[in-house]
Each structure stands twice: as structure tokens, then as C-alpha cells.
Amino acid sequence: MATQDLTADQFNDTINGNDIVLVDFWASWCGPCRAFAPTFAASSEKHPDVVYAKVDTEAEQELAAAAQIRSIPTLMVFKKGKLVFNQAGALPPAALEELVQQVKDFDIDAAVAEQGDVKEV
């Protein structure tokens, strides 16, 4: 599955309508963002059951502000609509693959039932 561009209008529906969503906040002028893009795209090909979305922080400034993006790239991961990972900086391929597997293995329902809220992985 290829990555998809995400706008403010689609954000909540995408996050809440899919089991796992990775969101890459980026900008075209950002060197680390451009360097991370092929890693993000390659991972999307390995995990067709996961939504890989990209938010252009220049085009979607209000969404980036609402998400409290302070530096880019920033990767956020949602599972069943809950934020489970939020980190600035580009991940190397092996770290991204490990993160995806951890999120797949993470029992979000048990975490919510146990704590009423979710701890980030």
C-alpha cells in the first residue's frame, strides 16, 4: 500500500476509521523529512494492513498546530483512534519496522480497560 496525503478534513475519519495509522508530519524544504520519505514508503509496502499517511505541514498549518508539531519530521502512530507513539526525528528502517511490530502487538483494549487511558509505547 502506498502512502496517502492527509488533510485536516480527512484526519479524524482516517485516525478513527482504521486500526493502525502512522502519520508522518513533513515539509518539502526539510532535508531529514525528504531522507525519511523512502523509509516510510518502503515500510508501507511491507504492511498493507496499516495506513501510512503524510501531512504536509506547509499546506496543513492548522492541522500541524492542532497536533502540536514543534519540529519535523514528526511521526505519530494511532491504534484504534488512540495516540500510542509521538516522536520527532527520522527513524532508521529497522527502528520503524520494530515500531510497527510493537504497535501491532500492543493490546490497546487491555490498556484502555486497565488505565482508562493509553500509555505511549
Automatic annotation (TrEMBL):
User: What PROSITE patterns has UniProt attached to this entry?
Assistant: THIOREDOXIN_1 (PS00194), THIOREDOXIN_2 (PS51352)
GO molecular function per UniProt: protein-disulfide reductase activity
One short Pfam name that applies is: Thioredoxin
Q: Which UniProt keywords apply?
A: Disulfide bond
- Any signal peptide, and if so, which residues? none
Domain of life assignment: Bacteria
Family in the record: Belongs to the thioredoxin family.
Q: What is this protein called?
A: Thioredoxin
What organism does the record attribute this protein to? Answer: Mycolicibacterium confluentis
